[in-house]
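User: Can you model how uracil sits in this protein?
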Amino acid sequence: MSAAAEPSNAALAESLLAFWADAGVDAMLLDEAVDRIEAGKVLPPVRPAAPVVVAAAPVGRVGTPQPDVSAAVAQAQAAAAAAQDLDALVAAIAAFEGCSLRYEGAATKAVVFRGDPKAPLVVIGEGPGADEDARGEPFVGRAGKLLDRMLAAAGLDNRVLITNTVFWRPPGNRTPSPAEQAVCAPFLERIIALVQPRMLLLAGGASAKALLKREEGILSLRGRWLEWKSADGAMELPAMPTLHPAFLLRQPGAKKRAWQDLLTLTERLDRPGRPD
Ligand code: URA
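Assistant: Here's the modeled complex, given as structure tokens:
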């Protein structure tokens, strides 16, 4: 590479920072420890305890005992069922105290959805990241911008509602645990029930596995039409699992496969006579 073509230090630093931000590292630490108590600084605020706390369990660890989430799920079901429209549902989620993610580092309010409340397609990601937490809207960071570009290229912009399996940012952008997803699931199902889409696009393995109750990885699930069913069996929809846009940012070579998935989905959505 000629000297002229070499990236500047500033460009290299910017790209490194973007890489760390993508990985969920959004705070700087100093080289030397600072004793803030000694220095008379305030302690970090203590977050209020939730009445029902769902512990953060690692995803998919066979044999790991899962916390009993049934009380929190029952609370979520009751709150979700009472919401007669999306505004009421957003308020119910904001008031819900049964998901521990709310107390684990999410900086702002619940991140619920963006897009068309009557969309024929609901896109479901994993969970909010730092940008979403700051803005209060799903998929507004780098991954979200890529998602928007792909949806627009497939003619799907303005025809989608975008949401996630959980509504508070998992600390450090870790994958939400099955317990956290289970507690948020009644709200997600209520979103689907209120929007009445014709199909679902499941972005990434955490979304596909949770919604489809499957154990396979996203690379084997993606690109196939699978059936999503609500917990009570009353709703059924065709669902297309695909690669998560954050993965595509790290592995641009995989974009071709995600694009293929979007084309397959669009073909069915736009098929005349709506033979879903
Ligand atoms: N990744 C997700 O899965 N959801 C978001 O809202 C943002 C990034």
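A couple of observations from the model: Residues 1-5, 19-26, 39-65 have pLDDT under 50 and may be disordered. The chain is about 40% helix and 10% strand.
User: Helpful, thanks.
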